[in-house]
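Review form for a predicted model. The reviewer records the input and the model, then writes brief findings.
Reviewer: anonymous (R2)
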Amino acid sequence: MRKMLRQAGRATVHLVLAAAMAFGLWIFVTVLLITAIGTLAVVGAWLLPETVLIIRRIAGAKRRLTAAWTGQKIPEAYQPITGTVRERILIAVRDPGTFTDMRWMFAYYFYGALLALALPLWPFALVVDGVWSGLLGRDPVVLPLIVRIADLEADWSTALLKPSPKAQLTARVEELAATRADAIAAHGAELRRIERDLHDGAQANLVALSMRIGLAKRAYDRDPETARKLLDEAQAQAEQALTELRHVVRGIHPPILTDRGLVGAVRALAASSGLRVSVEVDRLEDDGLRAPAAVEAAAYFVVAEALTNAAKYSGSPVAAVQLARFKRGLRVRVADEGHGGADDNGGSGLLGMRRRVAALDGTMEVSSPVGGPTVIDVVLPCVW
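Model under review:
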């Protein structure tokens, strides 16, 4: 009985907020009329895109209200309203999201007042369910009806506010275009980094090695001791060049991923990070299946960059890494108990991580409030 009372109370609060929003929309009719008259008179046509933006904000608030009740987020798919007045008007009129929001708004004028059905049920619920459930120990009868009314309101809002397939496709195309541009930029930056590392590191060492070998050849007959010394220096130079080449190779695709797999590579990172890192693995070692090489590489670099940032900036000696396999992808979660405040523009490498993840159509969420903790949650889609 108490549990159902709490649920019915939450449902009533939800319906009260919904009714308040519906009442606000009735007042908003005045704005719609002014916009319609101004658009027909041409001189007030600039009001149209501004009104559409207001409607988007109202619909967004309703999406959040509905998601708070259902626990399921309702996606948005809008074209950005930018450019000249004429361009803004055309975008506002042609955007499928405008039709979706207007359809919901006009329907909401009628079903937004479902509170009127729920409030009269409370006296009956207190009497009927008080006796039926409180005294006889039976399941409540009237209180579930209040919850069902809130569910009905949320179901209608979800159905009406969900973007059309055309709008979702348009938003998806724009998202892929943006991630493609980021992937190209990241690829170009990676090529420049490899070129710089080869030019400044391995190539310089190989040039010095060639010079020392040439000097040793010329000094071999007349000064064997100097030649031996030059050859020793040449050997050290060759070893340094090999080290530089290994560094470049690790930046392209770490060999440890090929040898030990993602779990072994991440555990090696944790051991060498300078932090006390716990590694939790879920279903990645069950049947020997491995994610595609690109996905493993992205996950590895995310963990490596996140642990490097934690060691440099967090001030915490402890971090945790979670690797989880699910039906259609791989989840990577890195957390530390530091002082937080991580920012994409703060030079902490988060932007590079986002680009690497976006290139694989993945998602990355960062939670780092001031005072901590910092949690980086990455989802990489793949087929197992």
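Findings: The mean pLDDT is 82.
Further findings: The radius of gyration is 31 Å.
Recommendation: see findings above.
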